[in-house]
Amino acid sequence: MRERESQTLAVKRAQVEFHNFASLGEPERAERVYRDENARRGAILHHHAAFIGSMTPFLEIGANAGHSSYMLCNEFGEDGFALDISADSLRHGMALMDKWGLEKAPVRIAGDALNLPFQDNSLRAVIAYQMLSQFQDIEAVFVEAKRVLAPGGTFIFAEEPMRRKLSLRLYRCPYYETMKWWERKLYDWGLLGFLVQDVIGAAQEEGFGIRQNHRMELRDWHGLMVKHFADNQFRLFLPQRGWGEKLIRWVGRRIDKVGSDWVPARLLGGTLAAMCRKHGEAEVDRTAPFESRLRCPDCHAGMRVDEAGTLHCRACAYAAPNEGGVYNLIRSVEKRELYPGDRDDVIDFTLPGHETKLLAGWFQLEGSYGNKYRWIGERATARLKPLDGAPKRIRIRGHASAEFLRPGAFVKVRVNGEEAVAWEAERTGLFILEADVAAAEEYVVEIVAGPLWQAPNDERRFTVTLSMLRLIPRD
């Protein structure tokens, strides 16, 4: 029951899509972000090194491309695992390894943080960056991390949001580069946070269908640490974006009994980094083969590896081949939905053969791996077929450019001649359109958009780009 409450299959599906795009769709931008994150995260680990101790074998959950796991292997000399629900983003880590000239790599596992494919008491460190807030029941992840940690092991998490008291929470604001001019001005003055919901930029993830949990105040995070772990150290990072937030921090530190950031953190929010030690002490064999630490995601029995490098459950028929450097250890029933491949109910523009499901109105394929797309004009159509008779939703992923964003810009979707969903574009960037559809043997999807615009020296007339259409179960 707790697992279903914490994160639905729809959210997991959205995470797979989003991580693929974020890791692979804009590789140069992503690499800059990864370098900055590693510098910030490495500094925290060095600062608390005495408390943390050895991290081998480690597990990073929600690792994305695994860039921080590469840092642990190469800068810190540790060995371990990078786990993410997106197998494709983990595969992108091999490109990072080549680009950065790295020698060591973690074992890459596609897996679920709520059903970690690891034995009890098998790891020295579990690390989570910027991912706990994507679970409605964060304690469920704490419990799972504690299960796989050996006694004396350390759960490390960072970049998690603390709920801010001083905010009207009028709306969710996008990232800085897509803010309106007046939002940027208020942001620079340190005043925007008093108006918008706690985490600026979460709108993009929310738009993908990733449900965020920003209800946790500092005392809630501290309560979980004390409840599940014997000892802890933590650091607070408060927003100081301008004179408005700096003034509140100054006042809060004077209100606080010991002059700390505890009161300012409750007023302003920010992010938290914490190191939590599990009760007891036990040695972990650093030289044991990696498969000895794994367990089957279906039946929880141990795993073995054959001569071809495929992982097999010792008790059931579950098998996971090494696919481009990644073992997919997601529960079978969820793997079929999260990794559908080339099916009649999916048009994924990154897959060859997708064009057989396209009808009229599509321009040629463009983009980089992980972000393949096609421009459309004022109208495009495609055909999808359901695999079963269960109730369905249509899900469409696209992008609105600055050239498209004019007064009255819109995207409308009709399915089998019936209007399904309409969207009025107010900002540039990614968009997701979803709507329930009536039962049918096949679905002709029509996307209508406007206004049309032209690029210099190009005779074509464009509206938006689309990168995926699919039928999904109604949750």
Blueprint (SSEs and pairs):
Blueprint: H1 2-6, H2 9-24, H3 27-47, H4 49-52, E1 58-61, H5 67-74, E2 80-84, H6 87-100, E3 107-110, E4 123-129, H7 138-148, E5 149-162, H8 181-189, H9 202-208, H10 218-228, E6 231-237, H11 243-255, H12 262-268, E7 270-277, E8 303-305, E9 311-313, E10 319-320, E11 322-323, E12 326-328, H13 332-338, E13 346-348, E14 362-368, E15 371-376, E16 379-384, E17 392-400, E18 410-415, E19 418-424, E20 429-437, E21 443-450, E22 465-473
Parallel strand pairs: 1-2, 1-4, 2-3, 3-12, 4-5
Antiparallel strand pairs: 5-7, 6-7, 8-9, 9-10, 11-12, 13-22, 14-15, 15-22, 16-21, 17-20, 17-22, 18-19, 18-21
Compact description:
The protein is an alpha+beta fold. It contains 13 helices and 22 strands.
Q: Work out the number of β strands.
A: 22
Our Rg estimate from Cα atoms comes to 23 Å
Major sheet description = 9 strands, mixed
- Shape estimate: globular
β-strand percent reads 25-35%
What is the count of DSSP helices, taking H or I runs of 4+ residues?
Answer: 13
Helix content: 25-40%
Q: Tell me the distance between the termini.
A: 15 Å
Integer average pLDDT: 92
Unreliable stretches, pLDDT < 50, 5 or more residues?
none
Identify the strand order in the major beta sheet.
Answer: 6-7-5-4-1-2-3-12-11
Structural classification: alpha+beta
